[in-house]
Specification:
Blueprint: H1 12-18, E1 26-28, E2 33-39, H2 43-60, E3 65-69, E4 72-77, H3 87-98
Antiparallel strand pairs: 1-2, 2-4, 3-4
Helix pairs in contact: 2-3
């Protein structure tokens, strides 16, 4: 069995190029990741969003840290295998935005 390729942490140059392309996502320096709060009309809409994101995350084998209260979903993306922000986080953030 072959070992999966290592996931690389984004360089400062990559961060400077990629982060401005993610509207509303903020850098979480403490977790070395990105986060965003999504608000919906009610719990049903928030839960539906979480279900769509869960399917994307499972397919990508990259799972967010998230928190839900009623109509709000807070998402943090960071790559533990890279000890910080990686291209996997950027790609999942883009995919999440397409579910809206």
């Amino acid at each position: 069995m072959t070992k999966p390729a290592a996931v690389a942490r984004l360089t400062e140059a990559q961060r400077a190029e990629l982060l401005p392309t993610l509207a509303g996502w903020e850098v979480d320096a403490e977790q070395d990741g990105i986060r965003k709060t999504f608000k919906f009309a009610d719990f049903t809409e928030a839960f539906g969003f979480m279900a769509r994101v869960a399917l994307l995350a499972e397919k990508a084998d990259h799972h967010p840290e998230w928190f839900n209260v009623y109509n709000r979903v807070d998402i943090l993306l960071t790559t533990h295998d890279a000890d910080g922000l990686s291209m996997r986080d950027i790609e999942l953030a883009r995919a999440i935005e397409k579910t809206l």
